[in-house]
């Protein structure tokens, strides 16, 4: 419960930034429902109190005006609600991306891609229900409820109480019962949707293995199972919605019968009873959307809770921005001093590692699989903070070096290079968007990828399309290397850059790296003897 309230507070904090728009939406909503009620009210009153034809022409005029105002106000209310929703959704997305940037890369390593996609797309989209269909409708229903109950109470207190009861049932009780009933379904729905997303991604990425190992039927079965689970949960959701419509109609029908019967029993004046009954029948408009809200709000709140969880997650490391700057020309030393590290308590990955790197040269790092070689490189890059000891740059603890300085002194490259949608030029110049063509070509030449690029029809302007597999791993790695050379950091940290490559491509990359050993420090993790044989010194972890 506390968590739900905190989540609602969190959602409201976005709405609070645009109170004026919310106020307009509420005013327009109230006007629109007043117009709806005004139509039967004025018709009944005119019919009962007048027989003059001129009054009927006034009635027609006022009905036309009411319909017109109703249309305009309703459109305006919907427009404002969606304006509020899109504005706040953009705000949420902005905050989410900002947060993901602080969590990257350490805290994102353990999340599945399906999870991200669900988070960034459907979870954020789900908040629209809250922003567009909850906040102002609740305020409108509250204002309308107070006004209507006051009106009916003036006719007769009991009629006021019946109206109050019907509105409370429709606007509060039905949605909260539905909310409680559907609580589990909301979470199940999200989980099964995210599982289905994950399976589709895995199948798409692992299609070669699926083909090779004859896993087609097995994977299809898994896909079917996950699809069936999602269908089952969706059906449950729809069933609940049907029930709610039932309850709603029952409340309106029984409420109206009680209203008229009690009015007659209590001897309310017949003309007043007729007018107020007509008003009562047409007064449910503001409460019906609320009674349908429980189901929707549940999924919305479970999405919001997931988003809030990410927003509250603490980054593995906090960026340092306020220390005295270091400049890369000043690079003097890099060392690990009594470094220990564990991802989970009591499961040490590295223990008491001591290393002093030279300022220039080619240092290889070797070790059995799982010994923590990649982890050690993460610590050198400060993707994670050490559990004990320290990593020092220029004899200053890396925790007291501005993050931008760490990244300008150290460049990192891993086993695979991710290419982004854009041209090859953009991809090489990723870290230096204003780099001249000359600098980009120089970097590409150093990485031995220039000739291949020139053989493409649009050379450096060749577009790379996401997901298309028309660039080999070797070419990708060489583009990654060119990116690193352009970055021109005095320390290059490489995590098995040739592990996916054939001998020829490995040698091309190694030759490119090797030449740099007199200019900068290269720290390279590798399993391959052929790669490590070129190193000046090989350290075993
Ligand atoms: N993000 C993580 N969260 C928890 N445990 C992790 C994480 N990343 C790695 N590990 C674990 O830490 C240990 C060291 O992993 P690491 O990738 O650093 O080893 P490695 O020596 O580079 O292995 P390999 O040579 O196979 O790449 C492994 O047991 C691994 O399962």
TrEMBL record:
This is ABC transporter ATP-binding protein. Keywords: ATP-binding, Membrane, Nucleotide-binding, Transmembrane, Transmembrane helix. It is found in: Cell membrane. The chain crosses the membrane at residues 20-41, 53-73, 129-149, 155-174, 246-268, 274-298. Residues 334-541 form the ABC transporter domain. SMART domains: AAA. GO terms for molecular function: ABC-type oligopeptide transporter activity; ATP binding; ATP hydrolysis activity. GO terms for cellular component: plasma membrane. It comes from the Bacteria. Residues 23-299 form the ABC transmembrane type-1 domain. Its main location: membrane. It is a multi-pass membrane protein. It comes from Vagococcus bubulae.
